[in-house]
Amino acid sequence: MEAQPLKDLSKLCIHTITTRPWSLEDAIRHYSAAGVAGISVWRQAIEGQDPAEAGRHIREAGLSVVSLVRGGFYPAREKKDRRKAIDENLRIIDEAAALQAPHVVLVCGAVPGQPLAESRKQIREGIEATLPHCAETGVKLAIEPLHPMYADSRSAINTLAQANDLAEAIDSPLVGVAVDVYHLWWDPDLEQQIRRCGRMKKILAFHICDWKTPTEDLLYDRGLMGEGCIPIRQIRGWVEASGFSGFNEVEIFSTLRWTQNQDQWLQEIIRAYREAS
Ligand code: ZN
Fold first, then answer.
1. What's the CA-to-centroid distance between 206 and ligand 1, angstroms?
2. Could you tell me the distance, in angstroms and rounded to a whole number, from the CA of residue 250 to the centre of ligand 1?
3. Distance (Å) from CA 6 to ligand 1 centroid
4. Fewer CB within a 10 Å sphere, N or C end of the chain?
5. What's domain 12-276's superfamily in CATH?
6. How far is the CA of 15 from the centre of ligand 1 (A)?
């Protein structure tokens, strides 16, 4: 018998994108059988399905719906396109409500060539335009700062300080922040900004994976916890010391891993979660 106590899985959540080859049904079945406690649902995983039905199915399997991923992408040069983005986000909020996901993760968006400050202004306007709908449905929005390598086209919110500033300026209990170690580990102000986020009671989510050296693809080469250089435990310690007690969400986009046997991949994730996060 093993004498060493194993970290339990009661806070382990996996993003469906992490096991992208699996349908939502496969993911639910395998996660549940493996003892995973939560699932963050990517919109692609429920495309063409009834989100309320999907949510029921998830809960019946004993899993918590942790978040719906993802909304955002508010900035655009033309006003009509910004309006379209707002309408799309209203639909996403409805999906989250039907799924009974407590929040939507926001990849806020950016437009190549448009000043980042202008994009940030449009992001704030976009979020504020959907707040009445958040209030009606009870769905929160989690601003996720993205690593600056994505500042051209994916997000003009690139540090936790910027996400905190935005959440503070919007000043709504429905708007918080998602802390993702992949995007933020390098930031010298990280500990301080996590504390600030905690003081504002704005930490809605904590995402984990690792940063590989070399990183061979800007989007699809994230590492498994322990494979890279991110001090995940230290950052988790800061997040927990700031009052966060929610799920640790494994979010790994990896072309390499998606070509592997997903059953084995899931077992590796669980081992790494226990040993390196
Ligand atoms: Zn994330």
1. 8
2. 8
3. 26
4. N
5. Divalent-metal-dependent TIM barrel enzymes (3.20.20.150)
6. 9
Cα 221 to averaged position of ligand 1 atoms, centre (Å): 14
Ligand 1 midpoint to CA 105 (Å): 8
Each domain of the chain, given as residue ranges in start order, spans 12-276
Determine contact, residues 207/232, Cβ cutoff 8 Å: no
Residues 128, 137: contact at Cβ < 8 Å?
no
Residuewise pLDDT in 10s, the chain (277 residues): 555 677 899 999 999 999 999 999 999 999 999 999 999 999 999 999 999 999 999 999 999 999 999 999 999 999 999 999 999 999 999 999 999 999 999 999 999 999 999 999 999 999 999 999 999 999 999 999 999 999 999 999 999 999 999 999 999 999 999 999 999 999 999 999 999 999 999 999 999 999 999 999 999 999 999 999 999 999 999 999 999 999 999 999 999 999 999 999 999 999 999 999 9
* Token reading at 84: 């379209």
Residue 76 Cα to ligand 1 midpoint, Å, equals 23
What pairs with residue 248 in β-bridges?
Answer: 12, 206
Quick one: how many helices (H) and strands (E) in the chain? 10, 8
Distance of CA 180 from the midpoint of ligand 1 (Å): 5
